[in-house]
Amino acid sequence: MKYKEIQPMTDAEVVKHLEESREELFRLRFRLATRQLDNFREIRKTKNNIARLLTARRQRELSSEESHAG
After folding, report:
1. Which of 3, 7, 9, 26 can pair with 13 through a Cys bridge, CB separation 3.0 to 4.6 Å?
2. Looking at residue 70, what is its pLDDT?
3. What is the pLDDT of residue 26?
4. Which residue range(s) make up the domain with 44?
5. Which residues have CB under 8 Å from 53's CB, separation 6+?
6. What CATH number should be reported for the domain holding residue 62?
7. How far apart, in whole angstroms, are the C-alpha atoms of residue 57 and residue 61?
8. In a domain, 3, yes or no
9. Which residues, including other chains, have CB under 8 Å from residue 22's CB and lie 6 or more apart?
10. CA dist 31 to 3, 17, 22, 39, Å?
């Protein structure tokens, strides 16, 4: 998921995708531990998606704080 895809999402959608990505990361780690994971790069992709979603969420928090403060 690219950042441009995250920008038009609502806050609720970002949180929903964040939860889904964390669940996916759990499943990938479990499959890695049981040696069923073929493409281990998916773990990195999922971690990067989580980081992008968290960054977008934090930027929205900061922008809302600025609008309330100003």
Report:
1. 9
2. 65
3. 98
4. 9-69
5. 1, 6, 14, 17, 18, 21
6. 1.10.287
7. 6
8. no
9. 50
10. 27, 21, 14, 10
- Mean pLDDT, each 10-residue run in order, the chain (70 residues): 91 96 97 94 97 96 85
Residue type, 53: L
Using CA of residue 35, residue 38, residue 40, residue 45, what is the dihedral sign?
negative
Q: Is 34 contained in some domain?
A: yes
pLDDT of residue 1: 85
- Is the separation of the CB atoms in 14 and 59 below 8 Å? no
* Site of tokens 């499959």: 31
Domain assignment present for residue 22? The answer is yes
pLDDT number for residue 68: 83
Cα–Cα distance, 1 to 50 (Å, whole number):
10
User: What predicted TM-score, i.e. pTM, was given to this entire model?
Assistant: 0.89
Count of domains in the chain? 1
